[in-house]
Please model this.
Amino acid sequence: MAFSIRLTEEEKSLAESYAKIHAMSLGEAFKRALFERIEDEYDIEIANEAYQDYLDSGCKSTPIAEFWRELDDEL
Model:
């Protein structure tokens, strides 16, 4: 899939400088930045859900030995 975006001259210059410093094309720089942002936001959402589960449980944690047993049972 291809798409285009409009940049000011200043934004374009900054993006081109970033791509050049990292020895990649402008398209690759945008692609990496986009997916890094998506991954970061996904990780934050998963962490927030896990924290909410912890709070909902009355702030009870699972001993690590029990966690490993549960993991072994799933495999």
Observations:
- Residues 54 and 60 are 6 Å apart (CA to CA).
- The chain has one domain: 9-74.
- DSSP finds three helices and no strands in the chain.
- The mean pLDDT is 93.
